[in-house]
Amino acid sequence: MKLFNAAIVSVAGSVAVLAVTALAFAASGPTSSGSDPAGRVKVDTAVDRFGKLHVPANYRTTYQFLGTWAVARDQGPGSAEMHVLYASPGTIDAYRKDGHFPDGAVLVKEVYRAATEAMTTGTVSHVDSLRGWFVMVRDRNGHHPASDVWGDGWGWSWFDAANPSVASRSLPMKDGVVRPTFDYKLNCKGCHAPAKATEWIYTEGYPPLKP
Ligand code: HEC
């Protein structure tokens, strides 16, 4: 009987531990997908088994930093927006080896409104509130031919800051027009045409990819 009790206590104990762990994952972010048994934070691939993209959980700590863009204001000094780029682990090494983005590589572009102020270095812009994310996932073999977010070697999506799990149709364009579609050919491709020769990516902005 004693043994039996001990077994129950130990099972109850592990359930409690599991519950606490699950809570810890939930608290670490809206799309957090937890950690492996060794406690390492899991690297998220940004795509589910149906080919739907999401903003990868924990990318700020598990991905590698690629570079930053500053979009100038139309009037006055400083930047209107700042864009901050991350790549999934392994992307930089692979690109430096053969000049290609490897299959499965994920690029995350954070889009921030910028704030500009006088600092001791001069007039300085820095990131302010987050507008959302662009996410691209490399697919060299065209695994999703029927999907309108996959094609030309990538999966392409935009996410509003409020919802990193579900792609948004309301991609904010500079002229204020919102494109009411998910189709990357309408939403993304035209604007990325100048970078076609570098696999549709503006590689000049990313020091870690340079020789
Ligand atoms: C108005 C033109 C425009 C549209 C629309 C656009 N992009 Fe871009 N994108 C750019 C430019 C220019 C850059 C690099 C400079 C910058 O960030 O300002 C860029 C950079 C990126 C990057 C960083 C990697 C790179 O190519 O340098 C990602 C990821 C990205 N875009 C994804 C997308 C996706 C996905 C869509 C569609 C949902 C999209 N973009 C729509 C112009 C555009």
What does this structure look like?
- The protein is 22% helix and 30% strand.
- The protein folds into two domains: 30 residues; 169 residues, Cytochrome P460 (Chalcone isomerase), CATH 3.50.70.20.
- A hairpin with a 6-residue loop joins strand 1 and strand 2.
- It is globular, with a radius of gyration of 21 Å.
- It has a six-stranded antiparallel beta sheet. The protein has a two-stranded antiparallel ribbon with strand order 7-8.
- The N terminus is likely disordered.
- The protein has four helices and eight strands.
- The protein is of the alpha+beta class.
- It starts with a helix and ends in a 19-residue tail after the last helix.
- Bound molecules: heme C.
- Heme C binds next to strand 1, strand 2, strand 3, strand 4 and strand 6.
- The site of heme C (HEC) has 21 residues, from strand 1, strand 2, strand 3, strand 4 and strand 6.
Keywords:
single chain; 211 residues; alpha+beta; Chalcone isomerase; 2 domains; two-stranded antiparallel ribbon; 30% strand; binds heme C
Tally of DSSP helical segments: 4
CATH architecture level-2 label of the largest domain: 3-Layer(bba) Sandwich
Low-confidence stretches: 1-32
CATH superfamily of the largest domain: Cytochrome P460
What fraction, in percent, of the residue positions are helical? 10-25%
Which percent band covers the strand fraction?
Answer: 25-35%
Radius of gyration, in Å, reads 21 Å
Element-by-element helix/strand order: HHEEHEEEEEEH
The gross shape turns out to be: globular
Number of domains: 2
In round numbers, the mean pLDDT is 86
Q: What ligand molecules are bound, each kind once?
A: heme C
How many beta-strand elements? 8
Provide the spatial order of strands within the biggest beta sheet. 1-2-3-4-6-5
Helix/strand-derived class?
A: alpha+beta
End-to-end gap: 69 Å
User: Largest sheet, if any?
Assistant: 6 strands, antiparallel
What is the third-level CATH name, the topology of the largest domain? Chalcone isomerase
Write down the CATH class of the largest domain: Alpha Beta
